[in-house]
Amino acid sequence: xxxxxxxxxxxxxxxxxxxxxxxxxxxxxxxxxxxxxxxxxxxxxxxxxxxxxxxxxxxxxxxxxxxxxxxxxxxxxxxxxxxxxxxxxxxxxxxxxxxxxxxxxxxxxxxxxxxxxxxxxxxxxxxxxxxxxxxxxxxxxxxxxxxxxxxxxxxxxxxxxxxxxxxxxxxxxx
Length: 174
Hints:
The chain is mainly α. It has 7 helices and 3 strands.
């Protein structure tokens, strides 16, 4: 078995940040970013998405507070889910409730994944009967769905970005 360590955008962080900022139509940072976290495209996506929704439309630097960044990201997700047509999400904060619920369950079970059906049932039980919620969390890129290693029939969900998972689980503990 070969072990491969993917280093993300290592070595081209500044170019990646520039392109992400152009794509999201936000002002790039004025100083070079030295935080190694910016080799991860998911952090760039979150930072840019948050910046895009703020009044100043400036790049949000995680070193100013990863927790603040993740809270703003969750608020933005709630706003976006509120606007989904043909859903009864408005004003219910379903994205943040679902994120908290999943993080809590992962922490309690000491796992970074949940079986797809287990997660879907959990959300229906604790958040409400929203048949598309789990699929929409996956489509939004908050969660990812994968097949089991030894059983292709079994499907699992996890947070796409480990730092999000860590943050939301820690938030549950505190």
